[in-house]
Amino acid sequence: MATADAPVPAIEVIDLVVSTGPRGRETVVLAGMGFEVRRGELVVLEVEDARAQRILVEVLAGARRPLYGKVRALPVLRPGTVIAAGAPCVVSVSATGTPPDWYERVRETRSAALVVGPAQALAEVPADRRLRLENGYARAVPAGDVRVPVSVLRDRVRLAIAGAGAADDMADRVADVLVDADVRGHSSHGVQLVPMYLDRVAQGGIDPRAVPRWLRRDGAVRLLDAEGGFGQMAAAMAAEECAQAAVEYGIAAVGVRGNNHIGMLAAYREPFLRRGVVALILNISGPSVAAPNAGKASMGNNAVCMISPEGADGRALISDFATGTVASGKIRDAAARGRQVPPGWLVDAAGRPTTDPHALDSGGAVPVFGGYKGLGVSVIVEVLAGMLAGGTVSPLVHKQRQEPERAMGCAQMFLGFHPAAFGGDDLAGLSETLRAAVAAGYGAAPPTVYFPEQQERQREREAAERGVSVPVPLAARLGLSTPAADLSRRAAA
Q1: Cα–Cα distance between 208 and 6 in angstroms, integer?
Q2: Closest by alpha carbon to 390, among 285, 246, 473, 474?
Q3: For the segment 351-391, what is each residue's pLDDT rounded down to a tens digit?
Q4: Distances (CA, A) of 341 to 36, 131, 335, 346, 359
Q5: What is residue 335's predicted lDDT score, i.e. its pLDDT?
Q6: Which residues, other chains included, contact 474 with Cβ-Cβ below 8 Å and sequence gap of 6+?
Q7: What angle do CA 3, 40, 262 make, to 5 degrees?
Q8: pLDDT digits (tens, 9 = 90+) for 20-73
């Protein structure tokens, strides 16, 4: 539920208990139902029993009092009714359903809409989340996935970003970075971010026409102001500049300030691999990580990525990780797919361990990894990427979901090291020695994945063969609700 650290939900249902029938022979319809719908969300609640649907809608509308629990009375609309911008509402759907394009118009109003009806009638609704009434409770419905060819997915993301007002080169860059994350198996940093990006453009948090501006562009140290645009453009410019400067000077540092979310750090590997430069990329974000034994988020889920070329074939040793126990995006990915998260990933607003992924955006926090050593790594990122590059620290960074109308103001530091400047040119051989030593430590055959970058290469092969797995609601929003076989034919064409 809402806390002082999280925005108040537009629709909040707390522990509803409702029964029908004569005393002593009551039938429980709602047995402690609780859920929330945030502003801008369209949530489906599947209710197969028509009587239960009618009773639930009456309670939500304030026409029937529950035995226990609380809900703020909501307007109940018929499908197809015009919805006031930003207004929370309940839409009660019969078995006949409603054309999906009407729900897209609902989403455009930035309303908080709860759509109630039988599952079959709601199958084509492009919902952000799906719930199901089971034994009186609202249970999350795991989202199904569709497989989309990489080229088709990249094209749809590019069109979506360009449609928000971004220039072609910027739309291409955003699409490349997001799809690359899905291809490498990190969907938490992939195309599922598109709806949130578009919402931030609509509310002013991302300026789709912003052009990054160089504040300093000479010598080994350079500084770029992202001007509050799509983060991927400034990050890509910084990576290219850092790699080139490292070749010229042996070592280079490029800071980026005034930026928005840039996605997966490893997505910026190409300029360094092309020039044979070792890179270290650091990023700070808004507070979502709790210090050891703390229950409240106080630092960003800061990220670190090391890129080391291994040879002319483009192979690389890449280590990319967040300083929280897990990246915040992986928790939101679980929420989008209707899954719980493993123990240890999250604490709720009261500092208690939880497996409910929705707790993250309701005042919860991700514990820092590795205790005080993890805290030390996070502080290193704060100093280099935050204080030096950005003139800020993560507690001052705006959280992109809670403040969609404001640029994040996050920062990155790109560091480049040219091996020739240090007299070393056998990175591939030394990397292989290190890899072999780690493998030998298992005694018998090592596990399939035992070293950084092995899992990502495996996922890249799978994506090339089978496409990328995309949740059905997101696929529908991107215009990809086409059978997989047809998508494959379109890719081939």
Answers
A1: 26
A2: 285
A3: 888 888 888 888 889 999 999 999 999 999 999 999 999 99
A4: 19, 17, 8, 8, 11
A5: 76
A6: 191, 192, 194, 195, 336
A7: 85
A8: 888 777 788 888 888 888 887 889 999 988 889 999 999 999 999 998 888 988
Strand partners, 42: 113
Q: How many residues does the chain have?
A: 493
Other C-beta atoms closer than 10 Å to the C-beta of 325 total: 20
DSSP string, 438-463: HHHTTSSSPPS--STTHHHHHHHHHH
Place of tokens 């809608």: 57
Is-contact 9 2, C-beta < 8 A?
A: yes
> For strand 251-259 and strand 366-367, is the pairing parallel, antiparallel, or unpaired?
unpaired
pTM above 0.85, yes or no: no
Architecture of the CATH domain 11-141: 3-Layer(aba) Sandwich (3.40)
Domain ranges of the chain: 11-141, 188-440
- 121 with 448: CB under 8 angstroms? no
CATH fold of 188-440, please?
Ribosomal Protein S8; Chain: A, domain 1 (3.30.1370)
Strands (E), 218-315: 221-225, 251-259, 278-284, 287-290, 299-300, 303-309
